[in-house]
Each structure stands twice: as C-alpha cells, then as structure tokens.
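Quick one, tokens below. Sequence please?
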C-alpha cells in the first residue's frame, strides 16, 4: 500500500505541476490574446472546435485506454495501434479538408474554409504521438510529460502573441494551437525511447479494439455533447456571442478541466494496477473522490463568486457578457471531476459496455438543453446543462457503485461536507461584490476572505482529506 501511495503522490505531484503550470501559461496567453483580438475572432475558432475535437476522438479510438489498462502489452500491440492511428488521422484530415466548404456554408463564414484546412493538420500531428503519450501515462511518468507540455505551451504562446501583435488576427490563434501540438509531438518522440517497428497484428487489433471500440463510441458521444454548444451558438447566434462563450469556457477549464485531467491521468493507471483487489480498490477510490471534490467544490464555486471582477480586470469590459455564462458553467464544471472518477471505475473493471450504455442514456436526455438553446437562448441552455450534469452523476455513480459496493448515497455523504463548506465560503465571497469598492480591491478581498474561511474551517473540523491534500502540497513545494 505504501508503494502505491508513493507512486500516486509522485504522479499527482508532477501531474499537478504540469496542469497548473500549463493552465497558468495558457491563461496568461489567453488574457493577452483576448486584449488584442476581438470576440468574433475567437468565435471563428470556436465554430470548428467540434469538428477537430470529434476527429481527434476518432483518431484515438479508445486504444490509448486499452493499452494503459492491459497488464502486459506486447511490442506488437504498440506497433498495431501506432499504424492504425496514423492511417486514421490522415484519412480524417482528408475528409475534413474536402468538407471545409460545407462547414463554411453552414456557418456562413467564408474564411472558415482555409482555417479548417490548416487546423485539420492537428489530427495527423496528434496521431503520431498517441502511443508515446500512452507509454508515459502507463508508467505514471508525468515528470517527462510536464517538461514537454511546458516547453510547448511557452513557445506556442510566444508564437500566438507575436502574430497577434503583427496583425494576423484569427491566424494567430490557429498558429498557437498547431505549434503547441507539433512541439508536443516532437518532444514526445525525442524524450521517449519507443520506436515503431514494421508490424501489424490483426489479433492484437481485435483484442484492443474490442475494449476500445465501446470507449470510442462513448468518447464520440461525450465529445459531441461537450462541444455541441459551440455549434449551436455559432449557427443560431453570432461569432461575437460564441467568442464570449469560448472565453467563459476557458476560465472554467482552468480549474475544472485541469483538475479532471490530473485525476484521470493519475488515478486510472494506479487503479488499474489494483483492479483485482476489490477491498483495496474501494478504499483508494473513496479517498480519490473525497480529496478531488474538496478541491473541485472550492475552486468552481469560488470562481463563480469572483467571475465579474476577474473578467473585468483580466480581459476587459468588452468581455463582460461572458460573466453570466461563466457563473452558470461553474456549476457544471464542479461535477466534471466526479464524472471522470466514476467512469474511470467502469474502465478499470473492463466494463466498456456499461460505459457505452451510460453515454447513450445521458446523451439522449441531453437533447433537452440543446433544444432550449436553439429556441429560448444561451443562458437557458446552460442552466439545462447544469440539470443534466446532476442527472449524469446519479447515473454514473449508480453503475460504478455496483462494481465495488460504494453506493451513490455513500458518495454523497462523503462529499457533502466539502460542498457545504464551499457553498458557504462562495456566498460570503460573492457578498463582497455588493460593497462599493473598486473592482481590484473587491477581487483581492474576495480571494483573501475565501482562503481564510476555507483553511480555518477545515483545520477546525479536522478534515482527513484536507490534511492529506495539505501534505501532498507541501511535498510538491519541497521538490
């Protein structure tokens, strides 16, 4: 148990550094670009987001999860996955290339033809490095991944800002994204010793695809749902409104998506390593949920409380319409890590069939907020997504509970104290916006008040997960 704990702490430490550092760089770059560029230019990128995201999901095809889950994958498994992913990436790029005029007509934006064709090269770039990344995740080697992503984020950020200052407009955003993915892929090859051999196994493909195919379908449905709002807003509203939404989503992802990424990247390979020991698995799983949600509730509810002064100070008054979008999205984002943890358990136990069944049910229900967006407005659509997120949690936890005897009600009892503390703290922070202080003073006071109340409360109630997280944080600082 000690070895597993040390491995987990090491993985969390480096994954945490990776995500925090990258989120910080991305955030700073995003702020600078948002001050230089217009909401409409961000909206153009948002319009093709769903097409790139869905294509990337297909390129992976669930093989990375299948490789990570397999206890002792052979060399032929890696080679098979590499060549299949590469061929699929090239094929999908060609489809996207020739579909660009249709995408342009759909959104009534002529410039999308060239933007789509250039952005599509990301599919081929990513296909080259799926196996290399999977190997590092399987080995819980996040130190190497941290180095790679930091270098790529910094250089691509410089590229994007420089081009924006020189008047390249939307192409500065395109260049930033492509250069980041390209540098990531190059460094994964340079720092990873694995190289493909000329072999492809039909048996290996069938074995891995048998598990991964269900994850592929599930992933596609999830990717489409997570990005469908870009499509709806871009089609039925305007590039400016879509740009406002993309900025709100970026602020949300700083905490929600990065925390989810840390939890998924670290917990999945570790839980896979003890998948046959149910008692140990449940104990580890429970600790992961309690610690993760303490952070998730504090960050996301706190972000909702400071949304207005934060956006006004960082990216300016032209982005003010993004404030209500961000506040609503935060309630969806706070549950995102919890969804990921519960779905991880299905994959750990090899139940990709249940994973797929869940996605079909959830996405069928999710049609409701999409229709609200088309007919009744963006904000009502986002509130509908909050409701769907709570329904999705109940469904996810119900199925995972059956595998390790950890019920939804038990989960709720474990995370309820953290939610209660966070909602009280967020309410106190929000009340400061009612006072007649300057925006900068208000934001500063909100952050100080939130931090003091949170620390004092958890120290007083002697929260186990709080002290565990505190220990991990100190170990990261020491390193």
């Amino acid at each position: 148990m000690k070895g597993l704990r040390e491995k987990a702490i090491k993985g969390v430490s480096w994954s945490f550094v990776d995500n925090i550092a990258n989120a910080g760089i991305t955030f700073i770059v995003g702020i600078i670009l948002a001050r230089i560029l217009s909401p409409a230019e961000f909206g153009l990128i948002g319009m093709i987001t769903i097409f790139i995201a869905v294509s990337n999901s297909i390129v992976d095809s669930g093989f990375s999860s299948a490789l990570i889950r397999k206890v002792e994958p052979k060399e032929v498994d890696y080679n098979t996955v590499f060549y299949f992913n590469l061929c699929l990436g090239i094929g999908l790029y060609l489809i996207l290339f020739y579909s660009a005029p249709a995408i342009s007509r759909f959104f009534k934006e002529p410039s999308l033809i060239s933007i789509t064709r250039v952005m599509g090269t990301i599919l081929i770039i990513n296909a080259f490095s799926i196996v290399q990344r999977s190997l590092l995740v399987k080995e819980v080697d996040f130190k190497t991944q941290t180095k790679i992503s930091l270098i790529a984020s910094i250089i691509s950020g410089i590229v994007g800002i420089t081009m924006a200052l020189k008047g390249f407009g939307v192409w500065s955003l395109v260049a930033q994204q492509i250069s980041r993915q390209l540098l990531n892929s190059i460094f994964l090859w340079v720092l990873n010793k694995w190289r493909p051999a000329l072999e492809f196994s039909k048996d290996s493909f069938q074995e891995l695809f048998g598990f991964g195919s269900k994850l592929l379908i599930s992933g596609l449905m999830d990717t489409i749902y997570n990005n469908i709002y870009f499509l709806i807003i871009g089609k039925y509203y305007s590039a400016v409104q879509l740009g406002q939404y993309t900025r709100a989503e970026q602020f949300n992802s700083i905490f929600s998506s990065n925390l989810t990424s840390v939890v998924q990247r670290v917990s999945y390979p570790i839980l896979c390593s003890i998948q046959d020991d149910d008692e140990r698995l449940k104990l580890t799983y429970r600790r992961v949920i309690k610690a993760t949600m303490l952070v998730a509730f504090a960050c996301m509810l706190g972000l909702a409380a400071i949304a207005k002064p934060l956006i006004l100070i960082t990216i300016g008054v032209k982005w003010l319409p993004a404030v209500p979008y961000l506040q609503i999205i935060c309630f969806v984002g706070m549950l995102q890590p919890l969804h990921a943890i519960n779905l991880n358990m299905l994959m750990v136990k090899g139940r990709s069939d249940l994973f797929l069944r869940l996605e079909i049910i959830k996405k069928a229900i999710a049609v409701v907020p999409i229709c609200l967006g088309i007919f009744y407005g963006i904000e009502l659509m986002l509130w509908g997504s909050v409701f769907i997120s709570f329904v999705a949690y109940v469904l996810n936890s119900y199925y995972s509970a059956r595998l390790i005897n950890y019920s939804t009600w038990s989960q709720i009892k474990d995370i309820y104290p953290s939610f209660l503390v966070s909602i009280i703290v967020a309410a106190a922070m929000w009340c400061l916006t009612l006072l007649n202080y300057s925006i900068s003073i208000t934001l500063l006071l909100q952050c100080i008040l939130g931090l003091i109340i949170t620390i004092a409360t958890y120290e007083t109630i002697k929260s186990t997960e709080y002290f565990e997280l505190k220990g991990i944080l100190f170990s990261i600082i020491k390193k």
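The two ends are 22 Å apart (CA to CA). The mean pLDDT is 82.
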